[in-house]
């Protein structure tokens, strides 16, 4: 692919805004809220860090609002399952925001076993002048109180508090891989390897099981659920993907238990590409509806595919993320990289899709122009405010000056989690324990 | 097959071995990963299923290839298949730990393959120990199966006919036996448990076999931990 001017149009106008180094822990999920004002990250240590975009400053119109830390809280703690004598990791697998309905923000965060609803609210006023206690909080001597006064609210430094409002526990035997908020804003689903449960936000002690693929005999198990998502507009429709590379679309109106799908999406295998690892690389690691609700995008180990909901027998578009790894599958199996679960995201207008790769590379594909680009999230190779330079992996033969050869790729630097602002060209890229935020250059 | 007196070409042999070794390499990687998983904190079901499916797929490929009459290939693969199946079964059963708390099955070869075991394990163990890393833990389980087959094949009476164990007769039949390579401390105990097996009734032998499976399981735990 030539580095021509056209390529730069999609993406290279992105410049690096900030990078936040969280020293302790690897980022495990990244998610913008519905307005893009807030960006939440979850990490391996069970913490959630929320960034808020600054208001645009009139003094510096060339600078878009920057994202600063807004709130940090410990969402999940490590637990011990006494029945199985196993530790339950506190790693945050997914965060999903609820649409904002009042001054507070609500999000769902989940580890392997438990989903929690968090309320994040601001406090910028404090009542002063209590009758029974003084300003330090100590109780006043009742005999000394001679008059009654009304407490008044006085401004204070902004404080952001996060409180757990609901805990949805004990509903999953296996590891939760997805949560998805329904468009009715009253229910959400949580999916583990073999089951999907439907919850009402108000009820924590029960959930409905809507999908169950556990066989009667575990020895017959050959397929697991890998991701699930509700349709953005139709509250009765959801999809889930499997480790065999299939996607099932289900309609909750047809029956209580949605084991029988309404639609089944599968691409026939290409016999020329068959290898020992064909099944492993066909396992879908992420599935996302487009904002329009007309398409779904799936990510497997080597490709990203776009499917039209009306066509089940093959995807309408297939994009190669890092096909040069196809000849390296045996080594990638040995070092377990073949099991890495990459996510994929749409931009706000569904015209560009993005996913991560190794060596801190991430890829963008423009669906309209069919152009694609590889960018790198690293401090060494990009200065703040500098436009990102497209990267290229050299497969064989002569390596050009700025290219990197396949054998030099660092497989420990993987970009699994990315997010795209719902309406603007702002992206968040998690590179191990660093978060990069890239913004479109303002013309 | 080539006729008598004709030399087999080196390139044919190498091709066979090369094709064989890549499949063998992958099979061994699979077994290693499955074995390691038993010791992990909580096995990842997604990963285990993918690895198990890969192994199953290769098993079915091996079955297709068995129609090719190549004794080297067949002998090297036969040993893998049954233990692979057993390994997969035991791994997946282990994963079903909450809803069905039943003891996991252990690596015991089926009755049909015992004669082949004694012929061919020697060949396989020698070849692979030298070549492949990670073979250690793979063959740990093979060794257990091997010893089990020894115990089943030999007439138990013959070993101990010179020991007078009449005073050790007990009410219950065949408590678990120790394997033939025990630590020195354990040698005392087995003698006490043999008397009931001295009687050559078929039912006792049958019960012995069940207990040998349990023995297998115990050894597996000991070796695994």
TrEMBL record, chain A:
Any single Gene Ontology cellular-component annotation: protein phosphatase type 2A complex
Tell me the domain of life: Eukaryota
Keywords linked to the UniProt accession? Repeat, WD repeat
Q: Which family does it belong to?
A: Belongs to the phosphatase 2A regulatory subunit B family.
Name this protein carries in UniProt: Serine/threonine-protein phosphatase 2A 55 kDa regulatory subunit B
From TrEMBL, chain B:
A GO cellular component term found in this entry reads: nucleus
Q: Which PROSITE patterns match?
A: SERTA
Pfam entry (one): SERTA
Protein name as catalogued: SERTA domain-containing protein
The SERTA domain extends over 19-66
